[in-house]
């Protein structure tokens, strides 16, 4: 797996990461969603440099200009519901991309901390031969992303696989490396070393879905 730790090079991205982590600032759900969207735009711009471009003649009112234009067909696939703000940020950059949405959640057995990933719903175009971009803000154990990719493979084999995430754990990154194609590109804003016994990233930021949209039952 090819890993791009985007915040290793200092930029305004660091400010947005700090704000979504800050327990006082993150109480503002609108700002939280907006910061996630902004980070989606920044990471997508970096990702765009690795895609395929072809020359094209552009007619202006005064003549013709040759330019290199993105040639890849892109499918953005997000895990509901936490992935929605990040999805919107990515979609602002790849505004002609096709879109897929998948419901995946942790299914606990009784009071145990152990869980399996349940994938209940998928709406997606065909992905065969396209650039598939999996979008999920929190890469904790990595099991959700792998389960979603396995589900999407029913619709074809992508030309390339990219994963865009905001905060990940080292354990989750290892799991993706072991269970996704070896040429997968992981674009991640920042990562932490630990998961707690419930499988949440520490220090992380909390539950991204709750912070964006309110607590769930």
Written account of the structure:
By secondary structure, the chain is α/β, with parallel strands linked by helices. The protein has a single domain, classed as 3-Layer(aba) Sandwich (Rossmann fold). The protein is built from six helices and twelve strands. Strands 1, 4, 5, 6, 7, 8, 9 and 10 form an eight-stranded mixed beta sheet that branches. It is globular, with a radius of gyration of 18 Å. The relative contact order is 0.18.
Please describe the topology of this protein.
Blueprint: E1 2-5, H1 13-21, H2 29-48, E2 53-60, E3 63-70, E4 74-80, H3 84-93, E5 98-108, E6 115-123, E7 131-135, E8 138-139, H4 143-152, E9 160-169, H5 170-179, E10 185-192, E11 194-195, E12 201-202, H6 208-213
Parallel strand pairs: 1-10, 4-5, 4-7, 7-9, 8-9, 9-10
Antiparallel strand pairs: 2-3, 5-6, 11-12
Give a quick rundown of the structure.
The protein is an alpha/beta fold and 217 residues long. Helix content is 30%, strand content 35%.
Which band does the percent of strand residues land in? 35-45%
Query: In CATH, what is the class?
Result: Alpha Beta
CATH architectural designation: 3-Layer(aba) Sandwich
| Morphology call | globular
Secondary-structure element order, N to C = EHHEEEHEEEEHEHEEEH
Q: How many strands appear in the DSSP assignment?
A: 12
Class by alpha and beta content:
alpha/beta
Distance between the termini: 36 Å
Radius of gyration, rounded?
18 Å
How would you sum up the major sheet? 8 strands, mixed
Percentage of residues assigned to helices: 25-40%
Low-confidence stretches: none
DSSP summary: helix tally? 6
Q: What is the typical, i.e. mean, pLDDT?
A: 93
